[in-house]
Amino acid sequence: MEQPNNLIIAMQNGDEKAFSNLYTMYSEAVYGIIYSIVLDENTAEELLQDVFVKVWNNATSYSVKKGRFFTWLLNIARNAAIDETRSKAFKNRRKNLNITNFVDILTSSDSLNRATNAIGLKKFVEALKPACIKIIDLLYFKGFTQAEASKTLDLPIGTIKTRNRTCINELREMVLG
Amino acid sequence: MTPEEIIASGNLELYVCGALSPEEATEVEQAIAAHPEVKREVELIEESLILLAETVAPPVSAMVWTYILDSIRNVRDDGNGKVRKLNWPAITGWAAAILFLGGIMWMLKQTNDLNDALQVTTTQNTILKEEKSTVESKLAENDKTLEILRSRDYRTYTLPGNQAVAPEAFAKVYLHNKENVAYIDVSGLPTPPRGKVYQVWSLKMEPLTPTSVGLIDPVNKTAENLYRFVDFPMPEAIGITLEPEGGSDTPTLSQLYTLGMITL
């Protein structure tokens, strides 16, 4: 998918319609990232709101010449969600400790969203190898650096990088065909 | 690095995840700009990762977008300050508060004015009361005087002025011969000069013996210009002289103002 630079620039110039289109395109993925970190729908919805208000208010701090728009969104969303998990209120509230990664969420969830149902992605994602689930969870969903992932998984940095590529390739073949 | 090497390096996946160092990210951006196949590869990685995140997301409530829209519109309005709606409830509230305060101030002023007026009236009343009591006491005094003058127990004598000293002067004497009380009215005498005082003398003729009866002095005063003397010896004549303050033992005849015979 080519990045919608026209919409992004229009939003940066204060175009609400463009912002609305971008929300439609990216909000579900952003929500998935936030939810995989906070594991609570109400908290995740609040954070999703906060993140997009932040996107609008700080739209000009992103440049289409530097980095992917989605990666920029991803950083804002992960930071907001991780900040939330560090708050005392959140720690008191958190109950479900069985869920540790995105596949656990899929497995334990009964209510699936539009995208998951329509394309039937659930079974593909669940088919990912455990090693892939771990590495994608850390680098993509949790925003770990390569060094942090290397330490957590007890693997050399070079292995982290190549395994991540292999796993995402597998994912691509499954979900994009 | 060739485009193929970059694609195979694993850096593009890390780039989309946001896990590359700034230097490596810059390299990737240069490769994306230079090679369409690198750009295409990045787009495919991104698309599959977006789909992955979407599968994990619970259904999104439509309220989220409504809330976002509300938030950014409020921020916009505050920022521009162009579209400023009048807050009528607040304006009405403030107006009412100001009116109410004004009303209270007005009423306070009214109360103050009334208090001032009341004080003035009270003062005037006091003055009038004092005047009234003065008038009453004066009236009582006059009544008493009149009583004396009307009484038949008192006999009235007029002491004519001494031709040599004060031809116009005169004094009136009211004498109660049984009780030896006399009232002397000196309104016919000129006001004595400073340091001088009138002295009343009772006179026996043969031989001529003056006896001081007393001074025309506030001690003896009973009413305006009317002086009372008790133990008044029954004289044959009464004279009034002007003497130095405190009186004299013998009358200064050169200063004899009035002299009159008394016929009992």
From TrEMBL, chain A:
Residues 22-89, 134-173 form the RNA polymerase sigma-70 region domain. InterPro entries: RNA_pol_sigma-70-like (IPR039425), RNA_pol_sigma-70_dom (IPR014284), RNA_pol_sigma70_ECF_CS (IPR000838), RNA_pol_sigma70_r2 (IPR007627), RNA_pol_sigma70_r4 (IPR007630), RNA_pol_sigma_r2 (IPR013325), RNA_pol_sigma_r3/r4-like (IPR013324), WH-like_DNA-bd_sf (IPR036388). Keywords: DNA-binding, Sigma factor, Transcription, Transcription regulation. Belongs to the sigma-70 factor family. ECF subfamily. PANTHER family: RNA POLYMERASE ECF-TYPE SIGMA FACTO, RNA POLYMERASE SIGMA FACTOR SIGZ. This is RNA polymerase sigma factor. It comes from Aequorivita aurantiaca.
From TrEMBL, chain B:
Keywords: Membrane, Transmembrane, Transmembrane helix. The chain crosses the membrane at residues 88-108. It comes from the Bacteria. The keyword Membrane applies. Residues 95-252 form the Anti-sigma K factor RskA C-terminal domain. This is Anti-sigma factor. It comes from Aequorivita aurantiaca. The lineage of its organism: Bacteria, Pseudomonadati, Bacteroidota, Flavobacteriia, Flavobacteriales.
